[in-house]
Write a structure and sequence with these properties.
Elements: E1 2-12, H1 14-17, E2 21-27, E3 33-43, E4 52-58, E5 61-62, E6 80-88, E7 92-99, E8 106-117
Antiparallel strand pairs: 1-8, 2-7, 3-6, 3-8, 4-5, 4-7
Length: 118
């Protein structure tokens, strides 16, 4: 089953909110596997690129090479194909965002991820 998820929200800069925000989280059902296929970012102000960090997490641990994404590597309209990151039954797939942009108090941020559950 292919899951195509788009999530966006307004996030305060991290100095005001105190911590990063998990914008999406999915626990792989027991006896299943999930493969992350595509990733795209949402950002309301492109001058903030470099001040926002996206992270793909597996069981709370950043996944190399997606542990500190500072540039736009794909968009919600055109997510990029990424290496098949495998998640076993019971694993948690999450996307975390840190907003360090100082020019506005909040930014519209998010992700589009496409993954397959078998």
């Amino acid at each position: 089953m292919i899951k195509d998820i788009t999530v966006s929200m307004t996030l305060a800069k991290i100095q005001d909110s105190g911590e990063p925000t998990i914008v999406y989280e999915y626990q792989v059902p027991a006896q299943s596997k999930a493969y992350l296929k595509k990733f795209g970012q949402i950002i309301s102000d492109f001058t903030a690129v470099g001040s926002v960090i996206w992270r793909i997490l597996k069981n709370g641990i950043p996944v190399y090479p997606y542990e500190n994404i500072l540039e736009i590597i794909g968009t919600a309209q055109q997510p990029i194909e990424i290496e098949n990151i495998e998640f076993q039954g019971g694993d948690t797939l999450a996307v975390l965002i840190e907003n360090w942009y100082n020019n506005t108090p909040t930014l519209g941020l998010g992700v589009r991820i496409i993954f397959e559950v078998i």
